[in-house]
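sanity check this chain:
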Amino acid sequence: MKFNLKTPYVVGVVVILIVLLLFGGRMFFIIEAGERGIIFRPYTSGLDTENVYGEGFHVIAPWNELYVYNVREQQREETMDVLDKNGLSINTDVTVRFNPIHNEIGFLHQQFGSNYINVLVIPEVRSTVRQVAGRYTAEEIYSTKRAEVEQTIKDETRNVLGENFIEMRALLIRSINLPQQIKGAIENKLQQEQEALAYEFRLQREESEAERRRIEAEGIANYNQIINASLTDRILQQRGIEATIDLAKSENSKVVVIGSGKDGLPLILGNN
């Protein structure tokens, strides 16, 4: 049989084609935008938690596994019944926005797997909301300390998820619903408190006005006392003389002095 040098090359090409046909789907991967990948090597080192594959084209050995995670911001909405400090049932609607920490998805996969949203995120959110609500009364949650309750839930949820490779972007409490009877009682109480505050404000305003008038009256009285103490007979005579001189200078009067008036002041008569 005549040996052909091209035969090994043909055989090699055929083998490569067969390998590509059989294992191409397990060797070539494209990681899309907003995704990250990690490799599991079953016959050597196992799960590679340190190296995270970014977006683009990747080639791996066909016996290895590539796990791809969506690392975009995701959102989940939850409706739950929680108990307040006194055991009263409260219905709450919560929205949480989050994403896996990009360079830690290997550890996330190792501990919680690809179903981490249902295994980790949702249970922790629900647990935190219940724990925080149990520290407050229904009235505080519904009205007087609502902002404090919301902030506490956000802080504690962010901490517990952050410790488990999840970055919480936001947590929104869309609504807090109480039994209608309790809600009406709380709103009625709040209305009465507002009316009491308004009444107290009016009283304080009237008291302030009364105090202002009292101080003004005392000032006028003190002024009159000072004036009266300073008005002696001689000062009054002096003021009378000054007034007489001013009248005498008037061009519209013809003045005749005929002796003196009471208290020694000049007596001035007009032309008529």
